[in-house]
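In the design runs reported in the main text, the only information available to the sequence generator was the tokenized backbone. The following block is the verbatim input for one such run; it is reproduced so that readers can re-run the procedure and compare outputs position by position.
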């Protein structure tokens, strides 16, 4: 397995692509149809993932001509590439399919911020040209594995996340009485709305909104962020990627739930335990250029950079 953040060159263009698109707006459907046409014209087979009850694809003059498959992990088997058209929510659901089949995934943003997307829809033609010619890199992004155990130690469920797992209180009239543990040692007990355990990729998502720091995706670490905790020591923690983070629910606590990437969930009854560790399989993230994460951060969050002069290369050369 490659080191986290290391890029490998895509050796050949994919023979078949799984297309996952957000179908909530007509412009999204039109963009998906254009992408499918560009891939097909380049000799690449296309299969289209369709969510249950969504009839949009069936009536589109272009997308209706391609093979439709259900939006389930098994539908990615046999494809070589996953193309996502939409926002971050669509990307995370598509990453679920790509992760199950160990396929590279590329996101084109059709939403608002779209932190997980590689490029914007205005560059769709160029993006498809690079995919069809095999001119792209693959970067591995760290994932986390989540296991939930009952009060007696019995397994209640397991899952994974690319962004984060949020252990959340389900009763908004009270708090989640939790104990935070790192590497089999207690750190602190507090009442809270929940506890977030995030990857570096997820540090710009829910964890960021809850007051956590931004971690560069090349960093190998696990981020822990208490969410609206009622205690003096509730600062975010950045721990080793080899660490095991656990959140225990007090026996007298309200029921909770462990939500992974916002849409996969496991119930956490009172007295249960949620264990989080580094996932065994990363997500294969497609890169179309060498643009650094700093530029992406500034662009997506519209950070002010007026007055920046940059390093003085001439002085650096003279002083060398």
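Verbatim output:
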């Amino acid at each position: 397995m490659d080191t986290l953040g290391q890029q490998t060159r895509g050796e050949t263009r994919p023979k078949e692509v799984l297309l996952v698109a957000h179908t909530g707006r007509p412009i999204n459907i039109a963009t998906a149809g254009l992408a499918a046409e560009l891939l097909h014209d380049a000799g690449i087979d296309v299969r289209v993932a369709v969510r249950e009850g969504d009839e949009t694809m069936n009536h589109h003059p272009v997308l209706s001509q391609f093979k439709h498959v259900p939006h389930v992990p098994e539908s990615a088997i046999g494809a070589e590439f996953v193309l996502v058209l939409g926002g971050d929510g669509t990307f995370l659901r598509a990453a679920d399919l790509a992760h199950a089949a160990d396929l590279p995934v590329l996101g084109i943003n059709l939403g608002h911020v779209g932190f997980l997307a590689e490029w914007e829809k205005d560059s769709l033609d160029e993006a498809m040209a690079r995919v069809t010619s095999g001119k792209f890199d693959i970067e591995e992004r760290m994932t986390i594995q989540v296991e939930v155990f009952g009060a007696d130690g019995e397994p209640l469920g397991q899952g994974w996340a690319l962004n984060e797992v949020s252990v959340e209180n389900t009763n908004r009239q009270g708090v989640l009485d939790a104990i935070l543990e790192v590497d089999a040692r207690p750190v602190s007990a507090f009442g809270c709305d929940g506890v977030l355990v995030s990857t570096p990729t997820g540090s710009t998502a829910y964890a960021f909104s809850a007051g956590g720091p931004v971690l560069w995706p090349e960093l190998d670490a696990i981020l822990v962020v208490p969410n609206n905790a009622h205690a003096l020591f509730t600062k975010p923690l950045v721990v080793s990627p080899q660490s095991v983070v656990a959140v225990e629910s007090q026996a007298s606590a309200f029921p909770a739930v462990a939500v992974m990437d916002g849409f996969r969930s496991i119930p956490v009854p009172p007295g249960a335990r949620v264990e989080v560790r580094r996932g065994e399989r990363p997500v294969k993230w497609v890169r179309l250029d060498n643009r650094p994460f700093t530029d992406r951060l500034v662009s997506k969050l519209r950070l002010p950079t007026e007055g920046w002069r940059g390093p003085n290369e001439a002085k650096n050369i003279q002083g060398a």
